Amino acid sequence: MSAQNQFDSIYDTNYPNVFRICLGYFGGNESIAKEVAQDVFVKVWGNLSNFRNESSISTWIYRITVNTCLSNIKIRKKQHVSVEKHLGHLKSEFENQTHETEAQIKALYRCIDKLNRDNKSLILLELQGLPQKEIAYIMGMAHGTVRTRLHRIKNELTKCVKT
Amino acid sequence: MRKNMSDFETLKSSWNDQSAPNTPENGSQQIVKKAEYIKNKQKLTNLILSITLIVLVVFFFYITAYNNARAALGLGIMISVLAIRIVLELVSIKNLKSLKFDIDAITFKSRIRNYYKNRVWTHYVGTPLIIFAYCFGFVLLLPLFEKNLSNGFYLYIKISAVFVLIGLLTLIAVQVKKELSILKAIQN
């Protein structure tokens, strides 16, 4: 398989997950999420030859995603606009669902946006359904630390969404 | 507490019920093109900075500044500090480029924090010293300008130097403020 074909396949498989993490990280701002997701894949393409199979390719991409989001503080500061303004895309997604669910998701984005950067990364990886062991590997934390912190963040988020 | 956890599972299920985002058509080809563009842009930046450095050195010899002690000292200081600034910038670009993004998030955060700390140190200590030395070199050249240039042109050089200095200081202040706010955001 040529490098381009391999990359095409990696891109198609992983783009939705990368985009969803970026969207959560940047408060539901779709344009920033697209820009940062593109930045993530530029790095994936540039470093593909360095991938050593020490983890699955998706875990490797999650590491790049979390770090790219962290390093893109500049973009966020440049385009800081309220979360609510950027959640227009949810309207179409939730046309067939209840207003309550839509409100819940909006509140979830808003509450995630209030977390510090590490906690944001932790909860977004959890929401994506990654096992805690994998989250620990991506974050560089002990498994026990991830478990404790996630427990606390989940409580915090649940309370925040309700208010 | 148990209720909060079950509430969280409801939130998680709503999160996963969001429709899958559309993958951009030909997105991967666009990524490859963008990667090429970034690479070429970096090469161009390095080239421009290197050419600037060469031009400064050639200029020094072209006007045979070494024949006059004062001119040699003044111009030598100005060229040297500019050269130091260019090298610092090239090193900074190289350091940023060599930051690995596929390491764990905690290590990455510490490395990027160090990168910005170095940048801020450069702005707070290195840059003021460079500007001071550059101005000193310029002041050394002023009597030569006065002796060899017309009154009008000499006045123009003095006034334009003040404006250039103000512009430069403003630019540096903006950059320091920006990089300090990034550092603060990373530490939070």
Overall outline of chain A: globular
Bulk shape of chain B: elongated
What class, by secondary structure content of chain B?
mainly alpha
On the 0 to 100 scale, the average pLDDT of chain B is 84
Based on secondary structure, the structural category of chain A is mainly alpha
> How many helices of chain A in DSSP terms?
9
Order of helices and strands of chain B: HHHHH
Taking all residues together, what is the mean pLDDT of chain A? 86
Low-confidence stretches of chain A: none
SSE series of chain A:
HHHHHHHHH
List low-pLDDT spans of chain B.
none
The multimeric state of the shown protein is heterodimer
Strand content of chain B: under 5%
| Major beta sheet summary of chain A | none
General description of the model:
The complex is a heterodimer of chains A (163) and B (188). The radius of gyration of chain A is 16 Å and the shape is globular. Chain A is mostly helical and 163 residues long. Chain A starts with a helix and ends with a helix. Chain A has helices at residues 3-25, 30-47, 57-71, 73-78, 88-93, 99-114, 117-127, 132-139, 143-162. The longest helix of chain A is centred in the N-terminal third of the chain and has 23 residues, at 3-25. Chain B is mostly helical and 188 residues long. Chain B has helices at 2-17, 27-62, 69-97, 105-148, 151-187. Chain B is elongated and about 85 Å long. The two termini of chain B are 28 Å apart. The chains are: A mainly alpha (163), B mainly alpha (188).
Layout: helices, strands, pairs:
The complex is a heterodimer of chains A (163) and B (188).
Chain A: H1 3-25, H2 30-47, H3 57-71, H4 73-78, H5 88-93, H6 99-114, H7 117-127, H8 132-139, H9 143-162
Helix pairs in contact in A: 1-2, 1-3, 2-3, 6-9, 7-9, 8-9
Chain B: H1 2-17, H2 27-62, H3 69-97, H4 105-148, H5 151-187
Helix pairs in contact in B: 2-3, 3-4, 4-5
Keywords for this entry:
heterodimer, A: 163 residues, mainly alpha, 0% strand, globular, B: 188 residues, 86% helix
